[in-house]
Write a structure and sequence with these properties.
The chain is of the alpha+beta class. It has helices at 27-33, 66-74, and strands spanning 2-8, 14-20, 52-55, 82-84, 98-101. Strands 2-1-5-3-4 form a five-stranded mixed sheet, with helices on one face.
């Protein structure tokens, strides 16, 4: 099953992406699969913040872990709704999620 996730890129264009829930992907990997400008330099280990995004709507997300919280405390352009895309697994509960990519560091 796929879920619909909307991601606004750094130019303000909104991309409606079909995200598979059966491939153990996360938001960072989804962005890379659709060739959105997300580096994911650390490979999804919550160590670089190059996949930082802003959550724009109220969708149930997994709680932020210690590694993600620590990385965001050192990152640029952090807002109260910042998350690391690599730390958000794609599940059915993400249906309708809306995100915006943070500016590049």
């Amino acid at each position: 099953m796929d879920v619909l996730i909307k991601i606004k890129d750094r130019e303000g264009v909104v991309h409606e992406l079909q995200a598979p829930t059966d491939m153990a992907m996360n938001i960072m990997e989804l962005c890379k699969a659709y060739e959105l400008p997300v580096e994911g330099t650390c490979g999804g280990m919550a160590m670089c913040a190059s996949c930082q995004c802003y959550v724009l709507n109220d969708v149930s997300l997994p709680e932020m872990g210690d590694d993600e919280e620590a990385m965001l405390s050192e990152a640029f352009y952090v807002k109260t709704n910042s998350r690391l895309g690599c730390q958000i697994p794609i599940t059915e509960s993400l249906e309708g999620l809306e995100l915006e990519l943070a500016p590049e560091n």
